[in-house]
Amino acid sequence: MDNEEIIEINKAYWDQHADLWFGTTALPKYGVRFPTEDDLHLFGDVSGKKMLEICCGSGHSLLYNAAKGTGELWGVDLSQKQLDNASKLLGENGYSAKLICAKMEDDLDVPKHYFDYVYSIYGIGWTTDLQGTLDKIASYLKKDGIFIFSWHHTLHYCIAWSCDERSDVIENDKFVMTRSYFDESYFKMPVHDSEIVLCNRKISTYINALAKAGFVIEQLVEESDTDSEEAADKTDLKTRKAEMLPISFCIKARKL
Asked: What does the CA dihedral 128, 133, 135, 139 come to, rounded to 10 degrees?
């Protein structure tokens, strides 16, 4: 399966199922059972700043930053359906953004060395060309510009309970390795009545690609938040899993 085929499969999924994910995993949330921006303060004061979101989805993160007083907002997404939802959401709340339907792997039609922030909430992991995408993101940022992104933690797809996690029964209350941490091959995952294609990259792969693109990492967060209202049910398997290993991770990096 080549990269273009992977992109088309994932694009078809989002065009068909965008409404099912409306408003999920968006700022101030960085991920499932994970500290929020209200806890981490990775962005700081964004008043008047120029910001670009990669994989902007339904526009809820754009709306969050608009309410914080940003000066200029841009959003890019593979799915026109997602962008339609984002445009409607922003308009209903009295805001707007420059929205572009494009692949993040492409050289986007956005200004170079222009943005104070580029960010992506659970989006970057979809790329079929991590190094190329990060190189392009660096070119969009000003010197000392900030790149923030979150994604599934690699261990999340490698370790599972010794049972079907959709069941209420855990055999022996133990984890099992279901996949090698070092396996970065693409795999298909059934979701709803369709499927998506993902690559489970090592944390070091992200760190090394950022360094090669000219970033210095300022913060890597792998914490779990198992005390929030969302995670109040301690019998929930995902909550119990989050108490023992990270479900998500987030990186803040600065362009040199």
From this structure: 160
8 A C-beta contact, residue 198 and residue 187: yes
Q: Are 77 and 101 in contact (CB under 8 A)?
A: yes
Residue 194, beta-bridge partner list: 191
Give me the mean pLDDT over the 53-71 stretch.
97
**Mean pLDDT throughout 148-156?**
95
Here the contacts of 175-183 (C-beta below 8 Å, separation 24 or greater) are 175/241, 175/244, 175/245, 181/154, 181/155
Reported as a single tens digit per residue, the pLDDT across 100-111 is 999 999 999 999
Give the amino acid at 33. R
Strand partners, 217: 253
- Structure tokens belonging to residue 54: 């990669």
Contact 194, 174 (CB under 8 A): no
Structure tokens at 55: 């994989």
In 3D space, the residue among 75, 54, 81, 45 whose CA is nearest the CA of residue 63 turns out to be 75
Residues in the chain: 256
How far, in Å, are 37, 99, 151, 214, 227 from residue 34 at the CA level? 10, 28, 11, 27, 10
d(CA 2, CA 222) in angstroms, rounded, equals 31
